[in-house]
Write a structure and sequence with these properties.
The protein is of the alpha/beta class and 289 residues long. It contains ten helices and seven strands. The protein has a seven-stranded parallel sheet with strand order 3-2-1-4-5-6-7, sandwiched between helices. Bound molecules: NADP nicotinamide-adenine-dinucleotide phosphate.
Length: 289
């Protein structure tokens, strides 16, 4: 058996639970973590009924003590730690100028520093057992900027850069590092955040823009691909004999990656604004100036 920790498993439609189930079905001892363990009761029940090894643990990834406790529990129970799936993430919407300062920091803490801390806590265990895999669920927002999601993009770009560098540091210890870069998947993540009142200030020049961003991102996710594709990709990264640095699940992510690499920065900017239906907003702002 191999042991995997998966973070951010609170929601039945989210990647975390699907990844947990997929890894458990593949024979992993899975530790599914979430801030409120009561929300994992159905998941734990499912694992028990299926006769699989799936344990739910309470875990706020922004708490370093809890990151270490979760690793200790997994290692105590199974004597191993083979895979860590850094899946936790929060959405962010709003033009940078209008974002609340505490929101900026909250996003970076949740999406970036928490994964850094959990990874740093896992590395000594993996090193001493002679190998392991660190996976980060990033986003295509970690490959290209999206207007109105600058801090979310910054957090995902940061993870991408970290992962690329870390992979070279840890290869000699048999520890691989991979990122999974989803585009739009129907997990309901952004729909949960349509009340973005805590994110940005209202009554600014960005109001119409911010509303457009919130609705277009939520719509994109609602009409997005099947989240199981992401779970299957995580399984691939967790089990491949030669894991890749980057994985592009489904159809949207490879298409975006291909389009981005075929365009200049200037062409890409026009393309993105058009795709998001923001060209008219840009035009209107120019006229109002
Ligand atoms: N859905 C997409 O289209 C898409 C696209 C690209 C990338 N992603 C990435 O995929 C990952 C999973 O997202 P999802 O779409 O599956 O949505 P999700 O179900 O909302 O997943 C986010 C998870 O993170 C948890 N979380 C937030 N802050 C936490 C903290 N401090 N400690 C522990 N858990 C915390 C949430 O728990 P609570 O319920 O307690 O808040 C939730 O379980 C995220 O990293 C996201 O950025 C998603």
């Amino acid at each position: 058996m191999t042991t995997a920790i998966v973070t951010g498993c609170s929601r039945p439609t989210g990647f975390g639970q699907l990844i947990s189930k997929t890894l458990a079905r593949a024979g992993f001892d899975v530790f599914s973590t979430m801030r409120n363990a009561e929300r994992g009761e159905d998941l734990a029940k499912w694992g028990f009924q299926e006769g699989l090894s799936l344990t739910v643990l309470e875990h706020d990834v922004t708490q370093p003590v809890q990151n270490r406790r979760v690793i200790e529990k997994a290692v105590q129970a199974t004597n191993r730690l083979d895979v860590v799936v850094n899946n936790v993430g929060m959405s962010s919407f709003g033009a940078l100028e209008a974002l609340h300062n505490d929101h900026l920091r909250h996003v970076m803490e949740t999406n970036f520093f928490a994964a850094v801390d959990l990874t740093r806590a896992a590395l000594p265990v993996m090193r001493s057992q002679g190998g392991g895999r660190i996976l980060f669920v990033t986003s295509m927002a970690g490959a290209t900027g999206i207007p109105g999601e600058s801090i979310y993009c910054a957090s995902k770009f940061a993870l991408e850069g970290l992962a690329e560098a870390l992979a070279m540091e840890t290869a000699r210890f048999g520890i691989s590092v991979s990122t999974i870069r989803p585009a739009f998947f129907n997990t309901g993540m952004s729909a949960h955040n349509t009340d973005a009142s805590g994110f940005f200030e209202r009554g600014t020049v960005y109001d119409a823009f911010n509303e457009r961003v919130v609705s277009s991102t939520s719509e994109g996710e609602l009409s997005g691909e099947d989240p199981q594709l992401v779970a299957d990709t995580v399984l691939e990264a967790a089990t491949a004999s030669e894991p890749k640095l980057r994985y592009y699940p489904g159809e949207g992510a490879p298409q975006i990656q291909q389009a981005r690499s075929s365009m200049s920065d200037e062409e890409w900017r026009g393309y993105v604004m058009n795709e998001l239906g923001m060209s008219d907003w840009l035009q209107q702002q120019r006229l109002e100036r």
